[in-house]
User: Fold this.
Amino acid sequence: MTTATTGTRTEVTTAATTEVTTRTGTAAVSGEDRTAGSRVEVRAGGGWAAVCGLSDLVPGRGVAALLPDGRQIAVFRDRAGRTYAVGNRDPFTGARVLSRGLLGSAGGRAFVASPLLKQRFDLATGRCLDDEAVSVPVYAVRTR
Amino acid sequence: MPRTPRPTIVLVGHGMVGQRFLEELASREVTGRARVVVLCEEPRPAYDRVQLTSYFSGRTPEELSLVDEGFMERHGIELRLGDPAVAIDREARTVTSRAGLEIGYDTLVLATGSYPFVPPVPGSDGTGCFVYRTVEDLLAIEEYAGRSRVGTVVGGGLLGLEAAGALSGLGLETHIVEFNPRLMALQVDEGGGAALRRTVEGMGLTVHTGVGGKEITTGPDGAVTGMALSDGSAIATDLVVFSAGVRPRDELARDCGLEVGERGGIVVDEHCRTADAAVYAVGECARTADGMVYGLVAPGYEMARVAAGAIDGELGGAGGAGSPGASFTGADTSTKLKLLGVDVASFGDALGRTEGCLDVVYSDSRAGVYRKLVVAADGTLLGGVLVGDAEAYGTLRPLTGSVPPVAPEQLVLPAGAGAPAALGPSALPDDAVVCSCHNVTKGTVRAAVTDHACTTVPEVKKCTKAGTGCGSCVKVLTALVNDELEASGVTVDKGLCGCFAHTRGELYEIARTRRLSTFAELLDGHGREEARGGEGCEVCKPAVASIIASLAPVLGASGYVLDGEQAALQDTNDHHLANLQRNGSYSVVPRVPGGEISPEKLIVIGEVARDFGLYTKITGGQRIDLFGARVDQLPAIWARLVEAGFESGHAYGKALRTVKSCVGQTWCRYGVQDSVRMAIDLELRYRGLRAPHKLKGAVSGCQRECAEARGKDFGVIATANGWNLYVGGNGGATPRHADLLAKDLSDAELVRLIDRFLMFYVRTADRLERTAAWLERIEGGLDHVRDVVVHDSLGLCAELEELMAGHVANYRDEWAATLEDPERLRRFVSFVNAPDAPDPSVRFVAEREQVRPDLTLLSGPDIPVRTLEALEGSTAR
Assistant:
């Protein structure tokens, strides 16, 4: 696979990962940002897949993306600029909608609330905060 | 094997006391041990006669009912409506009903109540003469008042004043004729009566005291034309209501040889039993052991309890003559009422009949305030009268019989005139009765908090029943509960969520006064310490987004709800300007103002639905919902709709949804106003208004109410003189009929009032609190809201109107604004890295000529939609 490879590469090992030092401000998005800004990559199938530009992510919200093997993921960015990726499927309903949930934080940990029935999922671990038996897959993310 | 036959209890009369008696039997499980048969004269089960007059302010007979749904069935009670008892045979122990049914009894309970006393005045049976006791009486008065101009009430007591208020409310010129020298002679003294009279006259009613009706004159058709008074004067009147007191209905008892009092009333002992041990009498028909016939409901309830306990004991239960509180020896006749909008209260020895007692009086005729306390020489509070401002009733009544901790003169002075801070409920002793309807003491209320872990007033009400009778003690109850919670170290967290300790109303005020237009400023500056700098959560983000949207014109924030930071705060529905459905697809609802739609527009909706394969359904709000749109289809769908002249219906927002209408005067033979035009005007005025919860309105063109306006947050019903405005209605899980806020309004007055009402609601309601719950919760309820939005008691009205004017001026259709801007359209893709790929999990199957979601796709793993190469092509873009 091919991805744009400008800028410094930051290796990551956990799901909630990247320290982003550029453009952590407001959600202002312009065409220039998209072409010139950092790219968000998600580890999948042994490699890194570019999913979007960092500026495609509005702090506090997510987007849905397709991995090369057809899996759907939900990618988020928080106010501090950290990025997260989890499976897009809401395990309670089966609908691929977690990317449309609202991002929140409690005790310093980021979570997404499902837009359908509002169960919350820890974005770093994928654990459901309202039902310990349930979780969603998490993916390593990096910005470069 | 022979079974012991169950004993039979027959209750004659199903009024308030009768129903309470049944509840007392049920709570003692007597209903499981005995057959219970009830004979009821009226065509409806027991209802709240004390609140009867509220029928005229919009309560329906059904809402007045005191019988919980399923109560009779649950307890196996046989209720025979419209079939009164006509004879009792005590020897055979049978009761005969009007329908001819003969029922054998083991125990007979008479709760026949009383009948209105009609003075023996010639003409008192003329057409247009009424009494004021049952729902049927009120229905008849309402009907007759429609063709009358002047009404006269005979009797200036409690009920007379209520009746007069009702006639005045029905638009009649109203007279009150009272034989005594003052109004409410039984409850208030001369000074109180004078204050009351001034206030009543100030409302445009004419009061005649110290005179009686001599004759009622009728026309050739037998209809009332006037009333001659004992002083030689006369009133030209079309309608007469007799409300000159009641008499116990003891005729059944007389006929079967039971003893009755000299002035009526079935004679009973302290267990409410007659000389015949198998027969009891309770309520207004009974003459109790203290020689009194009580006409108030609280003593009646007490008798119901005592009689049920005694009968329980006879049947082998825990109650009975020996158990505590098992006798009735007298009752508190304290009352607090709001008559014609005036607070009137009397308690204890209000008229100063105790020997050697002294009066402490404060009187301000200008303000219509009169307060008198009756004290013994040693300072013991014996009773009192409060007119115009009965605020202190809640604390003074329970103090009766003790020496108050503050000198009596300070208790009658108004605040600021040398009076200390009002005597709080904390001054009450534990054995003080806080709720006299249910005989609940302060100690019981405190225990509800300390021992039963109640933390809110509704919980305490449920636990103790306090405050669920006449409601006059709720204020004191609230203070007591709060005191107790504070004392036990319980802090009630009213905060919006884990991020904010403020309520939504408080955050609204913070945003408004400090001109804060971003979530980050609010969270970092006003959030809980531990939440500052964080993300917020799914609760506070949409709530703040709604506040910012409501205040946008004032804050200078963007009126477009998805600009800048606001985009990150909106729930998914607002974020995509459509309603998320269970399979991840969206539904689309174009606005159809007032439910009026041209054939051309209907065709466009049909074509759009057909072309995009959408499932269509008519909504309850008179518009059409189109289901099954993928997120990436929304812009194309809306491009077609906007081109045809449609706008967003805001079905996705906590915002104005619809203003439903009936077809109105234009077509309907009953209509008296153009309800469709008004509904369209209102819907277009308030479209896009963000609120704490969704808002619905309706306009009916006549009293038949086909638009179901009283089930809406604001409902408008046409009258011959204009519009009546109802507020706080609700359908759904907890239905509530809207209350009348104001009547006979012009178009402009109506719009101005709704402007104020909605903005006051937006400003003060909690998150996700509909107007119905808000009206129930806020202190002072409907009266307070009326004071604020009609009488401008807080001086807010100009500001509220200005806020609404700002909203109306700033309104822009969100979908038109979205379609114009390519940046705003970027969020409408299924996948950020494959904008042209539809979500393969959103599929449909056929059902009943349309589609429904294919839910089988949701249970499995993701389905690949594209080859790797194709995907790489799209990410490189």
Q: What stands out?
A: Residues 297-314 of chain B form the longest helix (18 residues).
